[in-house]
Amino acid sequence: MELDKVFDALASKPRRLILAYLSEVELSTSDLAEKFGISAPAISRHLSVLENAGLVSSERRGQFVFYKLNGDNLVNTLTGYAFEVCPVSRPLKRESRAMAAKKKGVRHEEDS
Predict the structure, then answer these.
(1) How high is the pLDDT of residue 29?
(2) Which InterPro entries does the entry link to (predicted)?
């Protein structure tokens, strides 16, 4: 992990918000694009920066790519703590938990 890549990735507010959404649940590019109301290609560019920095990882399932937070990454651990006290990110993290609970035990329709 190159520290400059991490700082570049975290310098963008949309990327920090993406990390908040991924804090509790893995999501596809289209899931994130829907949450942010921006195009899937724009979300893909942000996810690429986050993945290159080692903050998220991806897994292709059929025609969809799902992203998840690299939880064992120290930066993500510290960022997760910051999300708990940040008034902007706290609601996103709470929503992420709710999405994870909703998906738990239910196959995602994109997985079929």
Answers:
(1) 93
(2) ArsR-like_HTH, HTH_ArsR_DNA-bd_dom, HTH_CRP, HTH_MetalResp_TranReg, WH-like_DNA-bd_sf, WH_DNA-bd_sf
pTM of the model: 0.69
Query: Considering only CA atoms, which of 24, 43, 42 is closest in space to residue 32?
Result: 43
Q: pLDDT tens across 4-50, in order?
A: 888 888 889 899 899 888 988 999 999 999 988 899 999 999 999 99
